[in-house]
Specification:
This protein is of the alpha/beta class. It is built from eleven helices and eleven strands. It is globular and about 55 Å long. The longest helix has 16 residues. A six-stranded parallel β-sheet has the order 3-2-1-4-5-6. Strands 7-8-9-10-11 form a five-stranded mixed β-sheet. Helix content is 40%, strand content 20%. The structure holds magnesium ion (3 copies). One magnesium ion binds next to loops.
């Protein structure tokens, strides 16, 4: 059995999942817990790669599963279906997360930190401050990047005062222009050209279920909705195929304009009525423009789920 304590975020890791894992390892080590080791559950996306390149650091090691009794700490998620294979039999020492709590059960007591903030790294930032542990430039940039990513540069409605304050302080420590750095980082994540349509609809897809009705809400960030829509026909082909294969009632593909904070959605399936009711819009050419909508967690999932 691995003696290390493995720290990881969710599958299809985003910048928060990767950066918060690395930061939690740093925090633990500074706090005297030397066995901590950040790992990841999937490929590093382009936005996160920009951060790692900027800092000149390696991505955490990729793991496929964990053995029974493996000590782990979960960041940026808690639901077992978003976690590593074998999680049911792992020894969960702690969870640091900013999502709803669902589908988690542990055999033993644990440290569980849940805060309704915009980002896991905001929780970690407060932990550094509370413990009086010095934040160096590397971890400042890692945490700032995670906050920028999860809150879309503080523009997402998931943003809280805690995130704003943390990002401001981290920007000072890192001595970077947050606006400039953040835009560069977000843009690095919107380079979608070399992804196939199949990859695009799976880059950031969440599988959901309500009363036996299975649906998916997928999202991509872009600086040009129009560019992505040029591929609508092919996107619809692969979405239709996925609906058949996974027996879905609905597939919503949200194309989010990170510069102007709007989304265009493509919705297919037998239950597109849920989308029309949710947004009081009639789909035209299977599409609808949603002004001011950028957050799946706050603006897409709850209203669609309610109308399923
Ligand atoms: Mg995440
Ligand atoms: Mg997060
Ligand atoms: Mg996200």
């Amino acid at each position: 059995m691995e003696e290390k304590i493995l720290i990881f975020g969710h599958r299809n890791p985003d910048t928060d999942s990767i950066c918060s894992s690395i930061v939690k390892e740093i925090l633990n080590k500074k706090n005297g817990c030397k066995e901590s080791k950040a790992v990841r559950l999937g490929a590093v996306n382009k936005e996160t790669q920009f951060v790692l390149n900027y800092l000149g650091i390696e991505a955490p090691e990729l793991i496929e599963k964990v053995e029974e009794g493996q000590k782990v700490i979960l960041v940026d998620h808690n639901e077992f279906n978003q976690s590593v294979e074998g999680i049911e039999k792992a020894k969960i020492l702690g969870v640091i997360d900013h999502h709803r709590i669902a589908n988690i059960e542990t055999a033993e007591p644990l440290y569980y930190t849940a805060r309704p903030y915009g980002c896991t790294s905001t929780i970690l930032y407060k932990d550094f401050v509370q413990k009086g542990i010095e934040i160096e430039k590397t971890e400042a940039i890692l945490m700032a990047s995670a906050i920028i990513s999860d809150t879309l540069l503080l523009k997402s409605p998931t943003t809280t005062e805690h995130d704003k304050k943390a990002l401001e302080e981290l920007g000072k420590i890192a001595n970077i222009n947050i606006e400039e750095y953040g835009l560069q980082m977000l843009k690095a994540g919107t380079d979608l050209d070399d992804f196939s349509e199949e990859q695009l609809i799976n880059l950031d897809a969440k599988s959901l279920e309500k009363d036996g009705t299975k649906f998916v809400i997928a999202q991509v960030n872009t600086v040009s909705i129009e560019d992505v829509l040029k591929r609508q026909e092919k996107l619809e082909e692969v979405i239709t195929k996925t609906i058949e294969e996974k027996e879905l009632s609905l597939f919503v593909f949200a194309i989010t304009d990170i510069l102007n904070s709007n989304s265009e959605i493509i919705a297919l399936g037998s239950r597109t009525d849920a989308v029309e009711k949710a947004f009081e819009k009639t789909l035209e050419n299977n599409r609808a423009f949603l002004s001011g909508v950028v957050s799946r967690k706050k603006q897409l999932l709850p209203v669609i789920d309610k109308n399923i």
